[in-house]
Amino acid sequence: MKAEAMNKPATATKLRLTKKLKGTNDNNLAGYIFISPWLIGFLLLTAWPIIQSFYLSFTEYSLLEAPTWTGTDNYANIFTNDNDFKTSLKVTFIFVLFSVPLKLFFSLMVAMMLNKNVKGMNLYRTAIYFPSLIGGSIAVAALWRNMFNLNGYFNHVLSWFGIQGVGWITNPHTSLGTLILLNTWQFGSTMVIFLAGLKQIPGELYESASVDGASKLRKFFHITLPMLSPVMFFNLVLGIIGSFQMFTSAFIVTQGGPINSTYMYALFLYEKAFKHYQMGYASALAWILLVIVALMTAINFLVSRYWVFYETDGGKQK
Amino acid sequence: MLAATLGLSACGNGGANNGEANASNAGGNGASNAPVKLKIMWQGADIRHQAMLKTQEVYTKLNPSVTFSPEYMAWDDYWKKLPTLAASHSLPDVLHMDGAYIQEYATRGTLEDLSDIDLTGVIDDKTLENLKIGGKLYGIPISRNAQGMAFNKEALEAAGIELPKKDWTWDEYFDFARNARAKLPDGVYPISDTDTWDFYQYYQMSYGKGRIIQEDGKKFNLDKDLFMKFYGIHAEFREKKIVPPADMVSAFKENDPQADPMASGKVMTRGATVGSVGALEQLMPGKIDVVNLPVGPEGGGWAQPTIFLSVSTDAKHKDAAKAFIKWFVTDQEAGKTYGTNFGIPIYDEIYAALEPTLQPKEKLGKKLYDTSIDKAMPFSPAAAGWTEWVDNYKKTMDAVMYGQKSIEDAYNEISKSGNAIAEKQAAK
Q1: pTM for the complete prediction?
Q2: Which of A147, B14, B59, B278 has the fewest CB neighbours in a 10 Å radius?
């Protein structure tokens, strides 16, 4: 009896357990089936090409002939005798250094303006966000090319004031600046994220600060900025990654010129791959870019603990 | 929902098939050909696009089972797009090839051999033999082309400047520029600056020093004395404002109404070919005239077929593509439709029928061909695998143009990279 009594629940438990385990398995399978459209897409269109490009980076591959293994030759060439590599890296770093902070600053200012309680604000928001819908497209790049050309609209407007403008995109001193400006102008999505972040800041904080007699500037530096820092961090990381991969405007507006002054890394990579048919070399360049971006992001995360404030941490210093 | 959509699209397809099949019968062609949609791509200015589209319409009218899916763009965009299509094996059935690129595409195995298209009596064997690459014909030449120069006759005459004359020498060309500078208003320039390898090559070849890229890319030959002299003269011109400033030159875009060096009114001369001078004429009707490129002891410019129609190895309808190309070069009706938009039609009978109907402006191409033919040198494009060097040449000379590099440094850099590629190709 005793043994039986002991035995029975044990079997039951076992049964229940198997059932449960089986159940979880079934659930997992169903889960995988549900995400399979994405999963298959990821494995086939993202993971596999990544692995392949890693292999190709050690080969010489002209696309139309089979790749031949050359070991680390590509990497050695890139680092030792490729001036274009150095130039494009320098151009890209300058671009990132200026365009990211400018864009963050500009979109934050716009977001704060759009966060005010003014009648018809929704209309303003729509109007200001509207150009971002066509934001980074080829059409906008083509438009900028026409605007900032030597005979462009911009110089035409300047001529009303008696100023003879330069060819903004054909002058090596101003071309990169023009592209940075274009990138800053495409502030839409960054601004929307800032706006959402601003809306999350509890009004009580501002109220109590007002009661204590804090000035507007002080409120900005001691409430808005700290409360917004996670959003700022997010935008910063995305901005840096995006800027390192900047391609469209360099390709359409300036074609990397004049004399390589806007020869972005991504454009350099593209030309190696699709213009000069050096897929292996281009793959190696892509992996170097990945390492650079990963390093930059890692540094960002390391530094972030000193300035990003998460409410969930209760403000304690790590 | 999905099933419904599929069903609908299936019906749609069925309907289209029926429609085309009916049309085919109605055309009385009698051919039981399955409907074919030929993908076709070409480059050029708008005037050529219109002519090409109309030609395809005519073909579809005659062969209702064949329709076209055309794609067309300007020169620069075309050669940017083609490599990616070649890389992904999605080149169109019929594509426009140019003498400057055909070797590259042929040797990479992207083009079909078209030797089996019978063109006896249309194009003479010698011409075809000359165009073969490794014994195979990768493109059917559709026109006679030549490189010369267009100049703004109206403005030069108004300023009292002597017009360029046939077979002018390089010295006369430079003197023309110097003299015209004094007579032209500020902001208008007699000639433009140059940063591409082909224009310098005309100079080097005309002085008997041969082409720059020789032996299919295995030998490199850049003459230092001529190089220094040629770019030295341009440096002097830059200083004296005989050529436009570098940032203006970089903004030029040929055949763009506002940005074309001549149509914008900024420059009095520019290079033009038989096949492209019509587009410039359209931008400034009645104002331009043509002359051959400056000559040296060996001649100047070139005059030969450089525009081809090719069939890609990716083509889905190779036979239909070949049939279309054959019709394109041999048929009177076709020739009448595209006219002189690709240069002078290669088949003499087509041009003979065309000639009486040509307007004076259309005869400009013929005039360019006639002035160039007797002094013409061989057309000398870059060999396969040299596109990178061609790009580097331009970038290096841009740096010279913007005053950031000396001519000697430029020579050394260009030679170094040229020799490196030649060495690599010779080792293969």
Answers
A1: 0.79
A2: B14
